[in-house]
Amino acid sequence: MLYATSGRQAEAEKIRTTPLRQPDDPEAEAFRAIVLVGPTAVGKTAVAHQIARLTGDDVLCADSMSVYRGMDVGTAKPTTAMRHQVRYFGLDLIEPDRPFSVGQFYEYCRTLYREGKIRSDHLVVVGGSGLYIKALTHGLDPLPPASAALRRRAREIYEAGGVEGLLAELERVAPELIPSPRDERNPRRLMRALEIAWQGVRPPRSWHQAKTRGVVVGLDCPRQLLHQRIERRVDEMLERGLVEEVRTLRERYGRLSPTAASAIGYAEISDYLDGRLT
Prior knowledge:
The chain is built from twelve helices and six strands. It is an alpha/beta fold.
């Protein structure tokens, strides 16, 4: 919280050291930004917004759920008033019934840079999704586009055998693509890894071996306070109409994309609307 409350632009300038290009890109050292990460409800967006107001920077939201249109309350997107004060990117990029990958997000950011819409030393990145942040700080190797047929095949394995079924198939076809221990129970990561493996892509993405250059600032607070903030956020989301938002999305789109449907809060409200939760 220091950088939001100090009122000193110099404090923000000290951490503007993180390159957002691929490691082998000759311009990697030229593009730098402030990058803020931290747990849910710690106040990342508020801090990023205050830094941007102090420095005149733009804000890039690196969050895999904020890219979906209509998913506003449950993703705690910046308010309309905040967007009038600071220019935001990374929001409302796609309909929630469509898939959206980290590769698409990465290309979106590169396009912003090529078109001059974001500027080096004038950007605050706030996440969000660790994979999105890591793509920006480490880069991504080229990968084949998502395949609907292969994704259905992977989902069938998951529905039949769960995470263990996905791991077993990945161990059989491409054990080198098994995610790190922290992510090896994440079905979305495993299904995407299988999709890549079935297309014959080797080896894994280069950022698994790359070293981060620059500084990523992590925000934190005492656990008890964080739990209180999370509980308060949940209450506020319900008061602001999260149930109605989920109901409207279901009526408008029918079935959401697997990623959007699994968003924390949205999955639980859907179960509530279906009578599986009270």
